[in-house]
C-alpha cells in the first residue's frame, strides 16, 4: 500500500503544504491515512517557518514508535521531503512502523496447562509416606 510507504507519504505531505494547506490539518490527514492503512505507529515531524517569522518544529504521533536501538533502525521506515513556500522552506519527516513489524518488547504469555490428575493409588502412597514421617516425629518427641 502507498500509505505504508514513508517516503511517498512525506512527498504527498510536502506537495499539499506547497499548495497552501494549513500544516496541522495536512499532518493530521497524513497521520490518519497511515494509521487507517494498518500501521502500528506513525510520527509526522514538520519543521520550518510554519506561521510567523520564527521557525519551529511540530511533532504529531499516533500508535507506537521506536526511537532508539537496533529495532528503530530495522523496523521503522523513514521518509523525508521539502516543501518550498513563500515564507521559506519546510522540512517534512514521516516515520512509519508497518503492521507486520515484530517488536522485541511484544511477547505473549502462555498459560501453563494444569498438571495431570493424580490417580487414587498415588494419593494413597503419598498419604502413607506422610504418616511415616509424622510417626517418626512423634516417636522422637517421646524419647526427648
What ranges have pLDDT less than 50 throughout 5 or more consecutive residues? none
What does the average pLDDT come to? Answer: 81
- CATH class assignment of the domain at 2-97: Alpha Beta
The SS-based structural class is alpha+beta
Largest sheet: 4 strands, antiparallel
Helix content: 40-55%
CATH architecture of the domain at 2-97: 2-Layer Sandwich
For the secondary structure, the number of strands is: 4
Number of helices: 4
CATH topology of the domain at 2-97: Ribosomal protein S3 C-terminal domain
Distance between the termini: 84 Å
Annotated CATH homologous superfamily of the domain at 2-97 = Ribosomal protein S3, C-terminal domain
Question: Proportion of β residues?
Answer: 15-25%
Overall radius of gyration:
31 Å
Apparent shape: rod-shaped
Domain Small ribosomal subunit protein uS3 C-terminal: 13-96
Region (Disordered): 120-144
Family: Belongs to the universal ribosomal protein uS3 family.
GO molecular function: RNA binding; structural constituent of ribosome
Amino acid at each position: 500500500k502507498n500509505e505504508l510507504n514513508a517516503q511517498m507519504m512525506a512527498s504527498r505531505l510536502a506537495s499539499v503544504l506547497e499548495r497552501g494547506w494549513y500544516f496541522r490539518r495536512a499532518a493530521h490527514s497524513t497521520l490518519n491515512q497511515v494509521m487507517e492503512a494498518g500501521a502500528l505507529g506513525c510520527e509526522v515531524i514538520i519543521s520550518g517557518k510554519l506561521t510567523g517569522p520564527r521557525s519551529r518544529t511540530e511533532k504529531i504521533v499516533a500508535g507506537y514508535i521506536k526511537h532508539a536501538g537496533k529495532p528503530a533502525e530495522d523496523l521503522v521506515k523513514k521518509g523525508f521531503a521539502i516543501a518550498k513556500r513563500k515564507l521559506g522552506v519546510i522540512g517534512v519527516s514521516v516515520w512509519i512502523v508497518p503492521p507486520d513489524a515484530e517488536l522485541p518488547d511484544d511477547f505473549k504469555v502462555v498459560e501453563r496447562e494444569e498438571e495431570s490428575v493424580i490417580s487414587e493409588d498415588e494419593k494413597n502412597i503419598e498419604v502413607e509416606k506422610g504418616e511415616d514421617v509424622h510417626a517418626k516425629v512423634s516417636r522422637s518427641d517421646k524419647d526427648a
